[in-house]
Amino acid sequence: MSSSTPLFETIEADDPEYEQRTSSTGNIKPPPPTNPGLNGTRPAQQLASTPGDAESGIAGILRQSTHPLVLFFLYFFRLAAITVYILCGFFISNYVLSSVIVVVLLAMDFWNCRNVAGRRLVGLRYWNQVDDDGESYWVFESRDPSRPANSIDSKMFWIAVYTFPLLWLALLIVSFLKFNLSFVPIVVLALVFNVTNAIGFTYADRDAKQKWANNLASSGWNMGLGGLGGQILTGVVKNSVGRVFG
Q: Where does the chain show beta strands of DSSP type E?
């Protein structure tokens, strides 16, 4: 503060609310609470801290999926079959009609998972083939490793493949505990369909990884090393991958 400035010009004006809050005894009363709605201000909205929070939920999963329609029908058929099985006793009194509905949904789910969902979401397909001698064997197809599957599609596919057999197994146990043996054949059929898809796609995935490792060993290492060294390393890779995925 300079000496040329008058003293009274340096003192700020008194707060008018301060005098109202001060009692005759000199005690200061606390200020009245303020309502955010009265002065027109709103509290700050809580924003998503991470991108995962903004993309959570079913809508976020479908937005991140490469094939959202295929992923939707994968879960639709499976959830519809379980829902109809559980609620058929409350809404449908006809046992034959409810059984037919569940069996149709299970068959549609089995065909969709094996021929559409597996091929689109994870690039895998399998089937059982019988040769001329009457012997049956598994045939596996896999996508080119240079075109990896979407991480969301792959994760949701494997969750559906491994989770729903456990749910049907739990329903089978409940049926035995409640002595409701009339629906046991339906649950057994559901287990056959779901377990078949789980085993088939598991072996298809292992076969795809085995082929990828064999191609990598035979093409890359043989070209880089050649001769005896390439053959030795190729054999090591085949044996190691066979132990892990075989």
A: 124-130, 136-142
Residue the block writes with tokens 């094939």: 67
Distance CA(37)–CA(207), nearest Å, equals 64
β-pair partners for 142: 124
Average pLDDT on 171-178 reads 92
Strand partners, 127: 139
Q: What is the DSSP string of 172-198?
A: HHHHHHTT-GGGHHHHHHHHHHHHHHH
CB distance 92 to 53 below 8 Å: no
156 CB-near residues (< 8 Å, 6+ apart) = 61, 65, 71, 74, 75, 121
Bridge partner residues of 130 (DSSP): 136
Q: For 66-109, what is each residue's pLDDT tens digit?
A: 999 999 999 999 999 999 999 987 777 788 888 999 999 999 99
Q: What is the pTM of this model?
A: 0.65
